[in-house]
Design a protein that fits this description.
about 150 residues, Arc Repressor Mutant, subunit A
């Protein structure tokens, strides 16, 4: 099963950039993303550990970007939330006694390694600020209404 954490993390960081430095609550972000605020808090925790966000507790608190969006590559975001196998091709626990189980992981890894490297190279060239520019141009406002 593929995870949507990367897409949600980019959504979160884009909202934080568009907030103009004001703290944004997990409830507000959750409404924009269309998910539970607890999911948002888990992803914010991952982003914070990677140095991409900070949080301000208490009344009037919320999450903020830890540094400018122009300096955040999508590869950093991808890695912050676990990266992993974007194609869902990992086979975690095949039976080593099975001829297929012994070989399937190695064959899939060889076949998809190039695609993974290409994905990471592309993500390394792109920043959160690029996403913000597209969203701001499409939405026509500084802060999306979600």
């Amino acid at each position: 099963m593929r995870s949507s954490r990367f897409a949600v993390a980019v959504h979160i960081l884009t909202l934080l950039e568009l907030s103009g430095g004001e703290p944004v609550t997990s409830e507000w972000i959750g409404a924009s993303v269309g998910t539970n605020p607890a999911v948002i808090r888990r992803i914010l925790c991952m982003l914070s550990r990677a140095g991409l966000t900070t949080s301000q507790p208490g009344n009037g608190g919320g999450a903020r970007l830890a540094r400018p969006a122009a300096g955040m590559t999508l590869l950093e975001v991808y890695r912050a939330v676990g990266g992993g196998d974007p194609l869902g091709l990992r086979h975690e626990h095949p039976d080593p006694g099975c001829a297929v189980g012994r070989h399937v992981e190695g064959l899939l890894a060889a076949a998809t390694g190039l695609a993974q490297r290409a994905l990471e190279a592309e993500l390394a060239r792109r920043t959160v600020a690029e996403v913000v520019r597209v969203v701001a141009g499409v939405e026509g406002s500084d802060r999306p209404a979600h």
